[in-house]
Predict the 3D structure of the following.
Amino acid sequence: MKINCFWFRRDLRLEDNAGLYEALKAGLPVLPVFIFDRDILDHLPHKDARVTFIHSVIHQLNEQLQALGSSIYVAYGRPYEIWDKIIQTFEVQTVITNRDYEPYALLRDSTIEKLLHNKGVAFKTFKDHLIFEKDEVLKQDGTPYTVFTPYSRTWKKMLDSKQVEVEGKTMSYYFQSYPIEKYVQHFYKTKTFPIPSLEDMGFEKTNIPIPSKEVKQGVIKQYDQMRNFPAINGTSRLGIHFRFGTISIRQKAQKAMQLNETFLNELIWREFYAMILAHFPHVVKNSFREKYDHIEWRNDEKDFQKWCEGKTGYPIVDAGMRELNTTGYMHNRVRMITASFLTKHLLIDWRWGEAYFAEKLLDFELASNNGGWQWAAGSGTDAAPYFRIFNPDAQQTKFDKDMRYIKTWVPEYGTPKYPKPMVEHKMARERCLATYKAGLEQA
Ligand SMILES: Cc1cc2nc3c(=O)[nH]c(=O)nc-3n(C[C@H](O)[C@H](O)[C@H](O)COP(=O)(O)OP(=O)(O)OC[C@H]3O[C@@H](n4cnc5c(N)ncnc54)[C@H](O)[C@@H]3O)c2cc1C
């Protein structure tokens, strides 16, 4: 029997999934596939909350599919070998998937596409992870934006540029949804496939709680007023769900438009950094602004260790790092403070901090993490100028005045057990200014 396959990657949901909709609409039975990719997993610690999360989501998807008489074909290995096996086992006409824009994913997909084409199987991709891809929001001269504000203005104009009628209502073409209800009978009928256990893949289950994908409307409504205070639950915590596609960006952006423009702007930051990574892939290893690669970092390993463990003697920095180490989350304001502290106060290469966040953050996203780190180091697109150095104490007074956040994460603060500041702010500031100046003059 001829079939099509739908390959799930960072779009782990049945609802409003563009590629899945197109696959089902095409008419042939659709076999859903998920690969636990060893090229990614082999580099992760054996206790990784994101792997635990994905694993449980795959089980949930399988249950939803079982209710429809189908199942998800789950494999553990390298995508090339797995696809080679799938097309030998099934008579596949087309493999359909949603586009993934990270450098590794682009390379993987072009290799798979070649393999499939050589065997006479088509490979079709769709847009689902973003509202606008890299070439959809460009300057008038056709070049990419490198500054957020004009990018976001054009982004919003683009949204209005194409309208459609849905159930009597006019809406942006880019917010269209992809309801599969009409086509669910097209899922490939099968008994349930086995799912490898976490242990089979060398992982251990973690107990880190995953933030809910249901956000209270009040949080989004008051987002602009509450989002800067780490002691308050004033942000959505949806990062992990955007990352793995357990929610639809189109649905959330539409809600954001109705409820809070500042929240919408944050979703646009996500697209901005994805666009920057796609147009300027050198940012993965190098500074966006080349001259910042001449800075002579101190890169003191003991200092780095203190920062990682939250033992710098600056309570707002320590609270952030301990929150990250315990929960896999850190509030955005505190991400900015801790990143600034590492790069400016300790003069440690932003790539060290970036890698640490990449290992720990539940919502780790290459483009946004890189963008955030380069912003803090001053080497990025809309960078804070290097002479603007966050004073951690002043930040704390402004954003955690009554120390609720600090008391939660640094209970020994104010007792003799708490360490003295590892560097003195004024000295660190002057050292940073001198080092940056020297590096930039050299360029
Ligand atoms: C040094 C540093 C590293 C960061 N690393 C990441 C990362 O790996 N993954 C990541 O998704 N975000 C990253 N951010 C951006 C931001 O801190 C997080 O998106 C946000 O804190 C996640 O919490 P939330 O889901 O409650 O976000 P909310 O404030 O509720 O925002 C909603 C969503 O908008 C997006 N968003 C918000 N702020 C930004 C931003 N500045 N840049 C890009 N997208 C944004 C995220 O998808 C987020 O989930 C980083 C920021 C800094 C300064």
